[in-house]
Amino acid sequence: MQTLSALLKLSGNIMEEINELIEQRIKKLDELKALGVEPFGGSFDIKDYAEDLINKHSSTAKEELEASPVQCVIAGRIIMMRDFGKAAFAHVQDSTARVQVYFRKDILNEKYSVVKKLDIGDIVGISGKLFRTKTNELTIEVDDFTFLTKSLRPLPEKWHGLKDIETRYRQRYVDLIVNPEVKETFKKRSSIVKAVRDFLETKGFIEVETPMMHQIPGGAAARPFKTHHNALDMELYLRIAPELYLKRLLVGGYEKVYELNKNFRNEGISTKHNPEFSMLEFYIAYKDYNYLMSLTEELISYVTEKTLGTLKVPFGEGEIDFTPPWPKIPFLDSLTQKGVPADILNDIDKAAAWAKANKIEIDKGASLGKVLDEIFKEKVEPYLTQPTFIIDYPVELSPLAKRKKDSPELVERFELFVAAREIANAFSELNDPMDQRERFQRQVEAKEKGDEETMWMDEDFIKALEHGMPPAAGEGIGIDRLVMLLTNSQSIRDVILFPQLKPEA
């Protein structure tokens, strides 16, 4: 193992080398200007893309290209270069793929001197014709090129790839250049989001936008971010969920609404959590959580097959099978199935004692529901690999959900778990304003006792319910976690372009 002093010395040497390379590139920049070449050009009329050229001419023979020349015009970044004196080969990478280009002095004449000023990372516009090299590689023979951007900072590891995970997240722009699989992940994310929207719109949902800044944080149990509005001289909170506003729209007469946007929660950062994340929330009038379970199966299986072409998806070392139907297990039954004694499920003292005996950390003064939830996270959640609905939660864990008629201590709620993580949360919506007020009041009492993640009293939302909200069901699906599943990504940072990180030391 290298000593700290050795590592510092190595780091210093690397920085010294990078600084030297930057100086060399700045010198080339000045030389380009002296030659009358603008190193940071303007617009360029792209006619072709690398992927299209490769696909279209993958089987076009050398002789055919010579007999019927194919002219093309591309633009992209140089990611490899080999100089042979009077000729040079380079790989140019555009937004689709990379293709080899060939510079010849006898074709470019005086302009070939500019080729000598090219570096890996420079962005150029290329025009030329296709041919095949002696090794049969499809290549563009350059008849003209335009300097579009001079890169002053070298790519890491001489274009072989950016490997340090922390640096990849901090310099995502470089990560996207040198790691093609990363770009594919985010292209797939875009396809997933589009498929979600397409599905909901075919079902008659309309997309809406609700406030990002709330006077009263609500819609979920979480700690909010606080800010201050100077003109109004008032505290505001970045939203933790759009739920209460979306349900106001149900009161107003909309029957099917959804929002796919950002939520913010002032919580820890991990492979599963980012303080800023994408959430889909949708609400439908006159339906319940049973309907939503069927709709969720339909939605996720549609998105999976649409984007991946299969319902069996590799994840980690295993495989997730999204083929419906998925198991439905009551919350309390899921505990007893994993060996939790039935006699603790209705006794706070026994539940707390059992949790302590099993080394499960419980907050001081936690309610029975909270204790059981912590036991669930330790004893059940890690084993929910295949898509599974956990249903019928204790009422105190779901202050916005409708009670079960036959078991009023429980609510009509489900959470969908896949690969040992929560993907969706849904319930039959509480539309009784008096019951809602009572539950808000209990949340307020819990907050006064020190629970910072409980909901606030929202008088305007109760007022809305008093006007009458139809029976309804609503659901939230974590888009980032869904993308993780469908791209075989083990960290949420791998599917967020610019994840939140601690400042560099």
Characterise this structure.
By secondary structure, the protein is an alpha+beta fold. It has two domains: 11-154, OB fold (Dihydrolipoamide Acetyltransferase, E2P) (Beta Barrel), CATH 2.40.50; 178-338 and 380-494, BirA Bifunctional Protein, domain 2 (2-Layer Sandwich). The chain has helices at residues 4-34, 50-56, 62-67, 105-108, 112-115, 165-170, 172-178, 180-202, 243-251, 289-308, 331-336, 348-357, 368-379, 433-448, 459-467, 479-487, and strands at 71-83, 87-93, 98-104, 123-132, 138-149, 206-207, 213-214, 226-229, 234-238, 256-264, 276-285, 312-315, 318-321, 328-330, 388-394, 410-418, 421-428, 472-478. The chain has an eight-stranded mixed beta sheet, with helices on both faces. Strands 1-2-3-5-4 form a five-stranded mixed β-barrel. Strand 12 and strand 13 form a beta hairpin. Helix 8 (180-202) packs across helix 10 (289-308) and helix 12 (348-357) packs parallel to helix 13. The protein is elongated and about 85 Å long. The two termini are 23 Å apart.
